[in-house]
C-alpha cells in the first residue's frame, strides 16, 4: 500500500492551478506517511503550452488535448481549475462518466448546476468535492456536511468576498470614497480589471447558493439569491454608521425560516461588537448557527493562490484516502428536502435611509406620515447636516417587510419636499 501511486490530472495552470502544483510539490515527502500513497500529476491541461512551460519543472506534463486525460485509465483524479461554465461543465461530466473522481473550485458552475454534477458523481460512485468553491482556504463546506451534520442549521451568514471587504475597510479606516478604494484594490491585485462580479455581489451570491444548499439540505441556485453590491455606498454612509456604533459590510445571508429559505447578498450595518465587524481587509469569515453547536465562526483568507490551493489539495487527499479504502462517493448531494425560497419582498429588516429634504417646518411630519401609511414604523430620525435650503436626514426603521418599505419610498420620492433619497442600507 505504501508504494501506491495515484495519478491525477490538473485542468488549468492559472493562479489557483499554479498554487495546486506548488502545494503538491511541497507535500511530496509527506504523502506516503500522511496518506499511504503518493499523488502524482500525470497531465496538466492548458491552452498555451509554450507559455505554461515556463511555470513548471517538467513541461512534458503539459497537453492541450482533453482526450489525453479523459481517455487515460491511469488517471483517477481530475482537478478542474479552468473556471467558468464551459468547457468546465463538459470536462467534469465526462470525467465522472469515465469513472474518475473530480475536485473543483468552480463556484459559478456549482451554484448553477451543482445538482447535475453531484447526481452524475453518485451514479458513477465517484467523489465530487468542491471545498475551494467557497471562502478559499477556509474549511466550511466539509464542516457543514460532516462536522455539523448533527445540527439543524438555521443560519449561515458571512463576509464571503475579500475584494469588497478590502474596499469597505479602506473606506471605513481611511475615509476613502468607493472609486478610490476600488482603484487601490485593483493596484494591489485584490480586484480584477473588471470588478463587476465582486462589487455587485455576484461572487458572494454564488457562494451563498452553495452554502445554503449544504446547510439546509435543500437545493438553492444562484438565480434564487438576491444580490446587491457596494457601488452605492459612500463615505458619508460609512461616517453615519460609525456615529451609530456600526460598520458596513457586504454580507451573504442564508436563513432557514418556517416560511422558506432566505438567500441574499447586500450591504448591512452591523454593530461594532458583532464577530463579523472586526473582519477586515481581504479576509473572509462565515458565521454558522445550529441547534446543537449554537454559534460557530470560520475565519481566514478567502482567496489567493496558496490559500485556495490548500482547500483543493485537501480535497485531493480526501479522495486518495477514499480510493485506498474503496469508499469513493461516500458523501454526495445532501439536498433531500424541497424547501421554498422566500421572496425578497417578504423578508423583514431594519433599514437605514438617508435623504435630502426641504429644511422647513412640517416636512419631517409629512415624511413620517408617508412611511406610516405604508406600515413602516420609524425608530429614529436624525438631522445632522444642511446643504443650501435642504437638510440631510437619516431615518432608521423598525423591522419592516421589504415590499412595505419600497411602497413608502416610492411615495416619498414623488414628494416635492424630497430632493433625493441618497442611500438605503439594511441594518442587522
TrEMBL record:
Its cofactor is a metal cation. NADPH binds at residue 107. GO terms for biological process: methionine biosynthetic process; threonine biosynthetic process. It holds the Pfam family NAD_binding_3. It is an enzyme of class 1 (oxidoreductase). Pathway: Amino-acid biosynthesis; L-methionine biosynthesis via de novo pathway; L-homoserine from L-aspartate: step 3/3; Amino-acid biosynthesis; L-threonine biosynthesis; L-threonine from L-aspartate: step 3/5. Keywords: Amino-acid biosynthesis, Methionine biosynthesis, NADP, Oxidoreductase, Sodium, Threonine biosynthesis. InterPro entries: ACT-like_dom_sf (IPR045865), ACT_dom (IPR002912), Asp/hSer_DH_NAD-bd (IPR005106), HDH (IPR016204), HDH_cat (IPR001342), HDH_CS (IPR019811), NAD(P)-bd_dom_sf (IPR036291). It comes from the Bacteria. Its EC number is 1.1.1.3. NADP(+) binds at residues 11-18. Residues 352-428 form the ACT domain. It catalyses: L-homoserine + NADP(+) = L-aspartate 4-semialdehyde + NADPH + H(+). GO terms for molecular function: homoserine dehydrogenase activity; NADP binding. L-homoserine binds at residue 192. The keyword ATP-binding does not apply. The active site is at 207 (proton donor). Belongs to the homoserine dehydrogenase family. This is Homoserine dehydrogenase. It comes from Blautia faecicola.
